[in-house]
């Protein structure tokens, strides 16, 4: 029987299985635990927070200093049907307020 994490990984992201330590990290974080994850570029860090955020109730908030990465990941998540937004200095006041309203009203997943 597939775990909820595997089912979400397949349904949302289209992957059959986790790579390396991803599954253990995802299960640890999804259970409400903290994790410090060090992986090389392309190692699959994003799934280690995206999958648990989508498994848990509420909104997952990701803090990133990299604006371009933030924008790319949000666009990719939207294409997968995830209700995602970013809030950073590139947004004008109107769009920043729109994102804040969506966040406060619970209309976002990430």
Automatic annotation (TrEMBL):
Residues 26-110 form the Helicase ATP-binding domain. The keyword Hydrolase applies. Keywords: ATP-binding, DNA-binding, Helicase, Hydrolase, Isomerase, Nucleotide-binding. It catalyses: Couples ATP hydrolysis with the unwinding of duplex DNA by translocating in the 3'-5' direction. One of its GO terms (cellular component) is cytoplasm. It holds the Pfam family DEAD. GO terms for biological process: DNA recombination; DNA repair. It comes from the Bacteria. Its EC number is 5.6.2.4. The keyword Ion transport does not apply. PANTHER family: ATP-DEPENDENT DNA HELICASE Q1 (PTHR13710:SF105), DNA HELICASE RECQ FAMILY MEMBER (PTHR13710). This is DNA 3'-5' helicase. It comes from Xanthomonas perforans.
